[in-house]
Design goal:
With 137 residues, this protein is α/β, with parallel strands linked by helices. Strands 1-7-6-2-5-4-3 form a 7-stranded mixed β-sheet, with helices on one face. It is globular.
Length: 137
């Protein structure tokens, strides 16, 4: 995996260079505060989502409509206590819907992540507002 250093100011342009290739389940991984929700907000601007992106930590799943019509699901598995709980919220139905599913903290539900899932990895750097991003899309 190739890593790219991206500043907050460069984020939207960087996202525009690869976002059209996203499909199905996309795992967004990185430590707390690494910019996962900030990245999803940039994707929202790229895709023209109608709603403002918010961290789904307390709602677990947010649905965003696009100008083109299809919805996108933004999921945060941080508060999931077990994989059984993920099933209870209908995780597999979302994954099987054909919609783009952006999953934060996917490492908490490894059994359910499809083998063909795309991955975006984030790492903090010593510089403020700069992250390393690795893409497997």
């Amino acid at each position: 995996m190739e890593w790219t250093e991206v500043s907050l100011e460069q984020l939207d342009d960087f996202v525009a260079s690869w976002a059209p290739r996203l499909q199905g389940v996309v795992c967004i991984e990185g430590p707390m505060g690494s910019g996962k929700t900030t990245l999803v907000a940039s994707l929202g601007r790229f895709f023209g989502w109608k709603d403002r992106v918010q961290s789904p930590t307390f709602g677990l799943i947010h649905e965003y409509g696009t100008a083109a019509g299809p919805c996108v699901y933004h999921m945060d598995m941080y508060r999931i206590a077990s994989e059984a709980e993920a099933l209870d919220i209908g995780l597999l139905e979302y994954f099987d819907s054909g919609a783009l599913c952006l999953v934060e903290w996917s490492e908490k539900i490894p059994t359910f992540i499809p083998s063909h899932a795309q991955r975006i990895l984030l790492k903090r750097t010593t510089r403020e507002n700069v992250r390393l991003m690795g893409l497997s899309i």
